[in-house]
Predict the structure.
Amino acid sequence: MMIGEKAADLVLGVRRADELNTQSAVPPRPANI
C-alpha cells in the first residue's frame, strides 16, 4: 500500500471516530414523551 493511501485511511478513521464521538456526546432524545 502506498503511504498516501495509508494517510488517507488514517484521516478517514479519525474523522469517523470524531463523528461517532460527537454523536455519542449528544444525549439521546427520550422515546416516551
About this structure: Residues 3-25 form the longest helix (23 residues). The chain has one helix and no strands.
